[in-house]
Amino acid sequence: MSPRPILTAAETKAAEEAVFATGVSVEQLMEKAGTAVAEAAWRFGGHHPVLVLCGPGNNGGDGYVVARVLRERGLTVRIAATGDPRTDAARTARAKWAGPVEPLAEAAPAYVLIDGLFGTGLARALDPAVADPFARLAAGATRRITIDVPSGIGTDDGALLGPAVAHHLTVALGTLKPAHRLQPAVSLMGRIVLADIGLPLTSRLTEMAKPKLPAPGPADHKYTRGHVVVAAGAMPGAALLAAMAAQRGGAGYVTLVGGGQGGPASLVRRDDELAAVIADRRVGAVVIGPGLGRKDAGRELLATALAGGRPLVLDADALVLLAGRLDVLHDLAATPILTPHEGEFATLFGDLRGSRIDRARVAAAQAQAVVILKGPDTVVAAPDGRAAIAPPASGWLASAGTGDVLAGICGACVARGLDPFDAACAAVWLHAEAGHRAGAALVADDLLPYVAVALGTAA
């Protein structure tokens, strides 16, 4: 499955301009968009009465088209608007609507509500004269559908610009936007469907897709599948989780260096010096950080890993120990993967501004590393500007040790030879899929068998 492009508001506008340059008019594109939304609303809302809310711009113009098409299909449709349309295309769409247009403040609710008030590019909260009746009408609706992006949402950062309405269905027009994958916006969108309206789509930001990770072939052996070394430290249980996740993530050989007990018999334990273990040229990745500790022993292990010349996955305490010295990553033989959550990210990179996408990209460039900014809307960024947003993950992954599991899966993906950015995206996808399959009240240990199941689906 190819990753789907995600375009910002400005990029979407540029894509529309490219379509107009071919001779397609704004009105024709609006007709196409509105018809696509009407089709989705027809399928989702059934034959129930519909109220379409129209704003003054082209999003409202889409709403007029939606209303007309649904009425032509025999539905009972009403329109409530904030006022007269202000764009030529929206005026044209309004002129084709044969029915009345009610003032927004005076409208009564309907079973199905379609939000066409404001779309992409909104930069401020809705005025109370719009927000209050919108909230009232939404509360009175049984099914709520929004055109492209819910009104009151920041398109490029997923922020709530003010009070916002939760919808059951969002019809994204032409392309996904960052808000369709970033919290808190995505939590208000319900099911998201993409309507193809013929936009040319190119972007360095994509939606994370299921990876293609072929099963081992007849020529493979344990080392071709990848040898992962995990360094244990002050809390060996965290390193054990990472090591077992690397095994379930497809690595053919996993070595756990350091103390602790437990784990499967197939896990190789070494008490040798870390430097001696990673001197083996067959080592494809070193995972360090889970349970490492932040004292001198942890610093020494990290220094050894950094000097070892092997691809690195740096997590947890390793990230904290790197604060203020990112330059040590710049001359590594292979691009490392960093896996911070928000707290570790702030410790490592300080108070960066912008959306999660912006901050992850800046951090990746600063560190010359692939950065996995973990969270309910995980973002992966590479130093060259590539970035990807993961689909929504299970909230039950907010549990101790799940990050250690992710680090181990990253190690397995790197050791099998994937580009670091592709390895990070594959690992995040496998981790999220395992979380969905593990179900409610999971703990990190529960993920391990489901990592293998997720890997099987990606073969």
Summarize the SSE layout with pairings.
Layout: H1 9-20, H2 26-45, E1 50-54, H3 58-72, E2 77-81, H4 88-95, E3 101-103, E4 112-116, H5 128-139, E5 143-147, E6 169-173, E7 191-195, E8 205-207, E9 227-231, H6 236-248, E10 253-257, E11 268-270, H7 274-278, E12 283-288, H8 296-307, E13 312-314, H9 317-321, E14 337-338, H10 342-349, H11 356-367, E15 370-373, E16 379-381, E17 387-389, H12 402-415, H13 420-438, H14 444-457
Parallel strand pairs: 1-2, 1-4, 2-3, 4-5, 5-6, 6-7, 8-17, 9-10, 9-12, 10-11, 12-13, 13-14, 14-15
Antiparallel strand pairs: 15-16, 16-17
Helix pairs in contact: 2-3, 2-4, 3-4, 6-12, 6-14, 12-13, 12-14, 13-14
Relative helix content: 25-40%
| N- and C-termini, Cα separation | 12 Å
CATH homologous superfamily grouping of the largest domain: Ribokinase
The pLDDT mean sits at 97
